[in-house]
Amino acid sequence: MDKERESFAGRFSVIMAFAGSAIGLGNIWRFPYMVGQYGGAAFVLIYIIASLFLSLPIFLSESVIGRSARSNAFGAMSVLAPKSRVWKSFGYLFILTPMIVVSYYSVIGGWSLDYLCKACTLGFVRTDAANINEIFGNFISTPWKPLLFHVLFLSISILIVFLGVKTGIEKFSKISIPLLFAMIVVITVYSLSLPGAREGVEYLVKPDFSKVTPATFSYALGQSFYSLSLGMGIIITYSSYVSKKENILVTGFGTAVSDLLFAILASFAIMPAVFSVGIEPNAGPGLIFRTLPFIFSKMGESLPYISSLVAVIFFLTVLVAALTSSISLLEVGVAYLIEEKHLSRKTACLVVYLSTGVLGMLSSLSFGPLSGVRILGKPVFDFLDAFSSNILMTAGALAAVIFVGWKMNKKVVRDELTNGGSLKMNSGLFGVVYFLIKYAAPLAVIAILISDFIG
Ligand code: PFF
């Protein structure tokens, strides 16, 4: 089986693929808002510490599982704990979670595709706030259009996955990530040049320790968790395509830094523009689909073509960021079906495409005709989002660190993280990394779980 397995070409390819999964809607619509809301530079500092000392060890645990088993996320648990039913059931969790997530993630991906089309046809020129709210409200509640764009978005994603690990995922990520960085830098420079941008910069950089409460730590950790795509079998699956010669400590660190850098750049691209037109920043889809189009229309009063160009670049950034993440979510199920159910990549893609497509339709319709259908009091979209990010992903991440810290043989873990002792620096760091995996990360995840239940 090992011979047939595809693998990423080298370090750059590995980091680009992982960064593709990490950099997504979470960096654009949640992080910038959280920074301002929870204490500016003080929050960024807490976020960096949480990412490096807690989320990165979880990432490394998933990497250890994936690369040592060289198997899909379900198969990895069966290979490493062949006799245990409990661990096998976590294997199923790793497959199920990304399938649920991609179904509704692709609905938002579809919205960004539609908004890119709107931007290309100068749709935000000479409109006002009321009009933009109406455009958004009408769009998400009329059934066929968001459905069509959801299907279109999912079709593009599955096509990339169908092309395979090297020709599809690796190639697409290697082009997309540098492009995403280039585009976000262009928007940042433009945003910082707007009159009144200073207030937005202050909102982001002024450390305000009075806003830091115990809950801030949980929010920072939760966000870095979400952003690095942990607890969903993605890192396990992608790591199974990483060569045995690669230094997974370095690729993990490179991914965390790229993800952080992009989130910070996105903050400086968005907040100065938000403040420059004098509106309140808020998180969630509203920021991307209501607030920003309003900003583009405001800017367009004096410079319609430049603002339309910025709008096109912005929605292209959102779309590409969503695509690189959705392919990583889809690959988990596809790899499972190929290796465990012996389907061809084509059939596996078709099965994943149809199942996530149909589930996504329910999410999409929950903004319109199905808005009355509630699961535990929430519309389908909101329920799936909350259930997967608060419960399934957290449980998956906890399972991964406990598995590596408490179930796997320490020598196997050491060999994986140090390439059999040949990486001297990693050998020196192993004690610290292992401590973080075994004690610090599980405790932190349990703390998040508890705070989710309470709050
Ligand atoms: N890490 C990506 C993001 O921040 O958007 C992908 C992702 C993570 C999607 C977690 C969905 C999710 F629940």
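^ 4-fluoro-L-phenylalanine complex. Residues 304-340 form the longest helix (37 residues). The chain has one domain: 11-454.
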